[in-house]
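Re: weekly structure request thread

Next one in the queue (199 aa):
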Amino acid sequence: MKTSADPVRDYLSAVEREASTLPVDRRQELLADLAEHIEVTRAERPDAAIGGILAELGDPRTIAATALAEAGNGVAGASARSPLGAPARRGKVHALVPLLMLTVPFLFAAVFPDVPGVQFCSTMFRVIGAVLLFTSVHWTSVQKNIGVLVTAVLPTVAISIWVWSSAAPAGDTPALLANLATLALLAGTTAWLWRVRRA
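Done, posted below.
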């Protein structure tokens, strides 16, 4: 992609060129989504270099290929993919929903550790939260991977090791400290995800 006085226009032109076989309405929607994302990101991070913002979006060929692949699947009524590679579902799932589903159930499970129904519901809510986070359009792929890893995978592995091995120290105090540390990790990660989310 050539560098010019208007790198955003060049970037969008490159995407349009690469997606030239996409139906006109889908191509225009894809370009509008990209332009909106760039505008929102520039408003949220005015000091960020435009080159960095465009690099976060990805290569125009990759974006066009993703949109073309989805159009080739013949999904009825499906819109073009968002710049981040996830289906554009603006307004269906608020960004706060997966974050709450990943954090709040853990709190209930920690408060009521001996209630099997609470443990089961907590696990189910957290799995659903991880899926919603991973399929959300509010974060980049890297942010989603970090979010799912830190809020779902690592706590689950740590809890499993704690419960199923003899490595865990006996007593309520170590368990309370472990739960507080995990809750702090979840809260910190969800706060970070909230801060870096795409509007």
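The radius of gyration is 21 Å. Residues 29 and 80 are 7 Å apart (CA to CA).
Next request, please.
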